[in-house]
Design a protein that fits this description.
The complex is a heterodimer. In chain A, about 80% of the residues lie in helices and about 0% in strands. Chain A is mainly α. Chain B is α/β, with parallel strands linked by helices. In chain B, strand 1 and strand 2 form a beta hairpin. The chains are: A mainly alpha, B alpha/beta. At the A-B interface, helix 7 and helix 8 of A face helix 2, strand 6, helix 3 and helix 5 of B.
Chain lengths: ~280, ~240
């Protein structure tokens, strides 16, 4: 069975086969994961039954709902902006023009290489002081959120798209060009649709991280979800009631997003490479 | 140069870095002829073919289609490429398009032909290669031989003057080679000008009007298949034949 894969002695293999064969591993896996799942469920039940004050929920719910709406709008706007500009970052990365690929590489290096928190501070505190005279924007927090999340995640989306383009075989471009298509047309019709399919999982992953990154905006007093936790916790000294609401809020965004990515991947199946 | 020469290689040189892969090659392909290029791996035959629609740039000399320079960097290569069909070893069908969409895409997007006309023509072409029933299949639902036949139909959809075939049966299972060669044979019978790089000597002998042997970046022998396979003029030709036959 495993003889050709291992350089160990036959006896050792026989022992290993007996102890760690497929079936043993499977049952071991089931046992371990069941154990942990049970632990988590018990912990959650314990928290819900003994720690969460359901009486508090109606009082604090309105502020969580408005925070939820705010997070949704920040995510919606910066998602659209970061994905669409990220595609161009990715295209610029694979450009044969040195200056274009150089600038986009530097962009990615900076925004991927420094913490998002730092970038938020640069935009929120740094940028207004560069303005000659009084900074004209009154509520700079919301624009800061959009700009920081977009710039940061466009870099990650750009890298995902670059990888996606790199995974499209050269023959695709050659076939398109040999039919008389120009470079831009061949990119648009042939390479990008395939690159997008290749990049979908990575882009989706990044966009889920974007949702969670909104939590950092608490440091510039954006009234998002973590900010609500801090308000409620400092007023009531009750951590678990607001924490549970925060968890529900994030998961209600991130889980459907994961589903959406899977759906988009399945839709770009092109005749069943993956499900046949 | 006679009037009916359609594709003309005029003293071309091609380098990959320091490697001189095509050495002063001159070759005329006559209208309606099937020119088969054979030779050992690394002899430059595929590179020669790829230069013919400028998938590779040449460093010296000129390649002309119907008297128009292909290698001129200021020329409209996209326009010229529409008149040169190319079929690849690895098919290179567009995986996100159905067989029919693969065939109709370039006529619609490059030529601007309306969708109905393109579809009609596309279905005719798929019928010609025996794949009308697979029109709505995606490439990865087709066998290698079927994919390659779609690729031929795709190239024909642009109504090219010349068709280039780059080892189009090399990636196929042996039992699928015949169906692709069959389509190529029909095409040759219909009078298509073809330049075919291949290891299929049977095809070269039966369908070729002319066989060209390349070795180390040069054309070492060229002639009608009967004389090439019957009585090669050069020692290199004899050597090559003795290895493959």
């Amino acid at each position: 069975m495993a003889d050709s894969y291992s350089s160990a002695s036959p006896e050792a293999n026989a022992v290993a086969d007996g102890f760690l064969d497929d079936r043993t591993l499977k049952y071991l896996g089931v046992a371990v994961s069941s154990f942990f799942a049970l632990g988590v469920v018990l912990l959650v039940l314990y928290i819900l039954s003994s720690q969460v004050q359901f009486g508090l929920v109606p009082t604090i719910l309105p502020q969580f709902i408005s925070a939820y709406g705010l997070v949704l709008s920040i995510v919606g706007i910066s998602s659209v902006l970061s994905v669409s500009s990220g595609i161009f970052v990715g295209l610029a990365r694979v450009s044969k023009t040195r200056i274009t690929s150089g600038i986009s590489a530097a962009y990615v290096q900076f925004f991927r290489g420094t913490p998002l928190l730092f970038q938020i501070f640069v935009i929120y505190f740094g940028v207004p002081t560069l303005w000659p005279g009084t900074f004209p924007v009154q509520n700079w927090g919301f624009p800061t959120a959009i700009i920081a999340l977009t710039l940061n995640h466009a870099a990650y989306v750009g890298e995902a798209v670059r990888g996606g383009i790199g995974a499209v075989p050269d023959g695709q471009m050659e076939a398109a060009r040999s039919l008389g298509m120009g470079y831009v047309q061949a990119m648009r019709e042939i390479v990008i649709p395939q690159a997008w399919r290749n990049a979908l999982a990575a882009v989706g992953n990044d966009q889920i991280i974007l949702v969670k990154d909104t939590s950092l905006l608490t440091v510039i007093a954006i009234p998002e979800l973590i900010q609500q936790f801090r308000d409620v916790n400092s007023a009531t000294f009750d951590p678990w009631t607001p924490l549970v609401l925060v968890a529900i809020a994030y998961l209600s965004i991130t889980i459907p997003m994961g589903r959406l990515v899977t759906y988009l991947e399945d839709r770009a199946d092109w005749g069943g490479e993956t499900n046949e | 140069m006679s009037d009916d020469v359609i594709l003309e290689f005029d003293h071309i040189d091609k380098y990959f870095g320091d490697t001189h892969v095509l050495k002063k090659i001159s070759l005329d392909v006559t209208d309606g002829d099937v020119c088969v290029v054979v030779g050992p791996s690394g002899s430059g035959k595929s590179t020669l073919l790829r230069c013919a629609n400028r998938l590779e740039e040449i460093q010296a000399g000129e390649i002309r289609l119907d008297g128009q320079s292909i290698s001129d960097p200021d020329g409209d290569i996209n326009r010229l490429r529409q008149r040169i069909g190319m079929v690849f070893q690895s098919f290179n069908l567009f995986p996100h398009k159905t067989a029919l969409e693969n065939v109709t895409l370039a006529p619609r997007k490059v030529r601007g032909i309306d969708a109905d006309t393109a579809r009609q023509r596309g279905e005719e072409l798929l019928e010609d290669v025996g794949l009308l029933e697979q029109a709505t299949s995606y490439p990865n639902q087709l066998s290698g031989g079927q994919q390659q036949r779609v690729a031929i139909a795709r190239a024909l959809a642009m109504d090219p003057k010349v068709m280039l075939f780059d080892e189009v049966t090399s990636a196929l299972d042996p039992e699928l080679v015949g169906e692709v060669l069959g389509v190529m044979r029909e095409l040759a019978d219909d009078g298509m000008t073809m330049m075919v790089v291949t290891h299929e000597m049977g095809f070269a002998r039966e369908v070729g009007d002319r066989v060209v042997l390349m070795d180390e970046g040069r054309i070492v022998e060229s002639g009608a298949p009967e004389s090439f396979f019957g009585d090669p003029n050069t020692e290199r030709g004899e050597q090559f034949l003795s290895k493959i036959l």
